[in-house]
Amino acid sequence: MRLHLIFVCFISIAICSARARRRSPRLTGEEETRAEAEKLDGEVGQLFQRGQAADAVVKAHKALEIRAKLFPASKYPTDTPTSPSTLNDLGFVLQAMGSFEKALP
């Protein structure tokens, strides 16, 4: 009886997790690209906190490159919707490294 109950619980869990996976929305290509840029933004802060400022600068530049492709200047002439925070982070890291001239626009 106990084995039967464990088996039923296991099957119920498997069915629920399969349903949850089916319901999870699929990201479009653009959404995946945005998520990658956001992930890179998070890594910038983590790398800087660990004292890896040069690696943080590389990640920030990659995030900016991704956003430049997502939000081309022809469509967004003033600025991209999410670049200011990335630019701010990049400027902060460059300033902390003593690279003031690279932090200028």
Verbal overview:
The chain is mainly alpha-helical and 105 residues long. The chain has a single domain (29-103), classed as Up-down Bundle (Methane Monooxygenase Hydroxylase, Chain G, domain 1). It is 76% helix and 0% strand. It contains five helices and no strands. Helix 2 packs antiparallel against helix 3 (53-70), helix 2 packs parallel to helix 4 (83-97) and helix 3 (53-70) packs antiparallel against helix 4. The longest helix is centred in the N-terminal third of the chain and has 22 residues, at 2-23. The radius of gyration is 22 Å and the shape is flat. The chain starts with a helix and ends with a helix. The mean pLDDT is 77.
Attribute tags:
single chain; 105 residues; Methane Monooxygenase Hydroxylase, Chain G, domain 1; flat
Quick structural overview:
The chain is mainly α and 105 residues long. 76% of the residues lie in helices and 0% in strands.
CATH class: Mainly Alpha
Structural domain count: 1
Task: Please give the share of residues in helix.
Answer: over 70%
Average predicted local confidence, pLDDT: 77
| Oligomerization category of the chains in this entry | single chain
User: Structural class given helices, strands, pairing?
Assistant: mainly alpha
CATH topology, what is it called?
Methane Monooxygenase Hydroxylase, Chain G, domain 1
Topology:
Elements: H1 2-23, H2 29-49, H3 53-70, H4 83-97, H5 100-103
